Each structure stands twice: as C-alpha cells, then as structure tokens.
Amino acid sequence: MKITIIGTGYVGLVTGACLAELGNDVFCLDVDHNKIEILNSGGIPIHEPGLDEIVARNRAAGRLVFSTDVAASVAHGDVQFIAVGTPPDEDGSADLQYVLAAARNIGKHMKGFKVIVDKSTVPVGTAERVAAAIQDELAQCASTATFSVVSNPEFLKEGAAVEDFMRPDRIVIGCDDNSLGNLARAQMKKLYTPFNRNHERTYWMDVRSAEFTKYAANAMLATRISFMNELANLADQVGVDIEAVRHGIGSDPRIGHSFLYAGCGYGGSCFPKDVQALERTAQDYGQDLLILHAVEAVNEKQKQVLGAKIMKRFGSDLNGRHFAIWGLAFKPNTDDMRAASSRVLLSELLRAGATVAVYDPVSMAEAKRVFALDFADTPELLANIHYATNPMDALDQADALAIVTEWKAFRSPDFEQVKAKLKQAVIFDGRNLFEPAVMTELGVEYHGIGRSVLT
Ligand code: NAD
Description:
Strands 3-2-1-4-5-6 form a 6-stranded parallel sheet, sandwiched between helices. The chain is elongated, with a radius of gyration of 24 Å. 44% of the residues are buried. The chain is built from 18 helices and 14 strands. By secondary structure, the chain is α/β, with parallel strands linked by helices. Helix 18 (436-442) links the parallel strand 13 and strand 14 (445-447). The structure holds nicotinamide-adenine-dinucleotide. Nicotinamide-adenine-dinucleotide (NAD) binds at residues 6-12, 29-32, 35, 83-86, 98, 101-102, 120-121, 154, 156, 158, 269-270. Nicotinamide-adenine-dinucleotide binds at residues 6-12, 29-32, 35, 83-86, 98, 101-102, 120-121, 154, 156, 158, 269-270. It is an enzyme of class 1 (oxidoreductase). Keywords: NAD, Oxidoreductase. It holds the Pfam family UDPG_MGDP_dh.
C-alpha cells in the first residue's frame, strides 16, 4: 500500500520503517530539514534498538523515502498518518498546532479519497478538528476530494519500539460509522492484516473512544508507578522492603507484576504530558480527575527523592561536594531525556553547590543539548558538570553515586572498583538495582527507594 507518514520522530520513523518492512511503499515527511538530511545520508537521528537495520534495508529497497516535500507527501499516500508531536501547552492541554498544520497541508494538496490517520496522541474530539481543518482547505480551493479521519493511537515503548510495533499487544482503531468511514476501515484492515495473522489483535471502536483509550492506558500506567512510589516512601519510614511487597502483591493475577517498580519518578515524552492533558480535558467538562491529580503531584515529588536523600545524608549545602550520576535518559535503551528525572537531580545538586560527573551509555550528546537549555539562566553551573566517558570514570573522587536510569550495564558493576573510585562508598539507587543486604556485606552504604528494612 502507499503510505505517507507526517512527522519522522520516535513514532513516525518507527511506524514508517516497520510498515516498509512489511512491503508497503512509505514516504516519510518532516519539517526538520536536518533530520531528513541525516536520514537521507544513511544516519538515524534517534537511538532505537534494531531501527537502523530496518531503515537501511528498506531505503535500499526503495520502499522508504524521506523528504521535506509536502505536496509530494500528500500525493504519495492513500493513507496519511499524522505522527507529529503533541507537546503540553501552557495550561497542560495537548498543543494541537502541529497536528492541525499537518491536516491543513493535506487539505491544500489532496486529490481523490484519502484516509487520514491520527497516530499522535490527541484528546477526544481531535479527529473532528482535523476533519474541519482539511474541509476548510478543500473549500478554499473548491476541491471535491473526500476523506475520512481515523484514530489509531500508538502504544509502542521507546527502547523496544520496533518489537512493540511489529508484535503489538493490541491495535486500536476508531473509525466513523458512515460510508467514507467504511472505506477507511477497509484500508486500515488491509494495512494491519499482517499483524493479525496468528490472532486478531485489532480492537475496532468509534473515533472518540479510540482517542480516549490511549490516554486511559498511559494514565493507568502512571497511576501504578505513583502508587508504588508513594508506598515506597512510607516503606522507608516504617522499615519495610517495597521490593518484597512488590513481589507479594504482583503475584495476585488481579494486580500482576508489570509497572509496580518504585523509583525516582517517571519521565519521558508521554506519561507526564498525557496525564496532564487528560486532567485538562476533564476540566473542560467541569470534572476534576482527583486520582490523576495526585498521580502527577506524587511524581513531581518523587523526582526530588534522590536529591532529598542526598541532602539528608550530606546536608543542604553541597559546596565542595562532588557526585556521580549514572543514567540520564528517562529510561534505558533510549537517548530521550524529555522530562527525565536526571534533570531534576542534576539541577538540585548543582544549585546546592556540588559538582557532578554524569554518564549515560547513549544520551551524552542529548544531555549536552538539554542541559544547555536547562541552565540557560545560570550558565556558570554548566562548568560544574563533567561528562564522563565511562561509568567508572564518573566515580572518580565522588562523595557518592546516584543511579537514575536502570541501564543493564549498571546492574553488575565491579563493586571493588566502585569503592576504590568513590571517595566514600555511598550509593543512592533510584531504581532499586541492588540488594541492600549484599551492599552492606560489600561495605557500601546503600540508599534505595523504599528499602529501609529495620535490622
Ligand atoms: P517527536 O518529537 O520525536 O517527532 C515529531 C516529529 O514531527 C518531529 O520530527 C517534527 O519535526 C515533526 N513535525 C512537526 N510538525 C510537522 C509537520 N507539520 N509536518 C511534518 N512533520 C512535522 O515526537 P514522538 O515522540 O514521535 O511523538 C509523536 C506523537 O506520538 C505524540 O503525540 C506522542 O505523544 C505520541 N506517542 C509517542 C510515543 C513515544 O514513545 N515517543 C509513544 C506513543 C505515542
């Protein structure tokens, strides 16, 4: 099938590459010339395991094209995926300017019938706004072209995006129940047939319910994390091991084991903004989502938990102190640092007077870019960040190590070397990678999240 993907970011690039891998003829559009240039010269602008091979293979086969040419992109695809960003607006609602700009571009150039797919995470009612924007453009050029807007939210996880896209738990598609909607449904069914070969994974519904499903999923996952984080903070007070509790409750099939890990807060481009956007939608309808309000507040506080533990141990004036941070990305296997907990910790340590050595397996370039923005008002603090070339280098003469991202490479370090490098053998483990008893045996002063068992 002939497919256009508008927006070649984490979602658009993975969607485009994976659909090309299945034999479709895919045209990826982006307004970012730099990104398209990187892709056209054989590079990949993001870190995503397995993506480079798929992109290279399909580019070489001529099934995957990258371009900034809007008219050509609209002419290409019978199905037009909108996969642009929907960042939070100042009031927390999803900023739809990129989605609506993409829609207008389609309206300006389209001929015949097109299926327009909202792949971006967008609030309930967005498909109607997309349709209105396209219709408005068609009216301006007296076009008789027709279209139907479909909602097909994306559930891939960064770091496992290719695998998630190729083997999805579910495919959610919302279509209108009318003649153009039926045409769109038939096209979507054809496109996703290879994914449903072994069993049917598609959940068909109305457009608004599909839009809502994406927010409900992320809100539920964020809720589980904040719930466990709040309990972990209590566990620290009352002398309970939250890891034991996690196993104890996760074994109940009604609860399950996933997303019960206590830590130093969730980040990324999705949970924080989607929780906020859903709260905002509710407000528009005169409702307060009390649970989600708490989920967000708990998470904001949790991002400060490592800083608070460090200051409890070393005092609030950290002048003359030096710390190491392992892990900058918001989670492992990605270079994405949007809303990452590491940014909160780094800022707290630097503003309290400390110097900090940071290390991440893939986010070092992104870290430099992001920190320059974070400290634009206090550029003198940037000089207090040392970018280490490996995890051990980061530990040199540090008063303590703080772990923020659970990269596999951090799970089994040579603890004798860790101790030798650190000025003091103190570890603040924001992802509960290690066993407190083992740390005590090794002579490491260990501070996990919710692991202060009374002995
Ligand atoms: P991203 O910022 O990585 O990519 C968006 C791309 O769209 C950028 O490259 C930008 O230049 C481009 N763009 C903006 N306006 C454009 C236009 N008019 N025409 C063409 N290109 C345009 O964003 P992302 O992380 O891929 O997220 C995209 C959407 O998918 C968001 O709504 C997000 O919430 C949702 N989503 C993201 C993830 C994730 O893990 N990143 C997962 C599921 C859903």
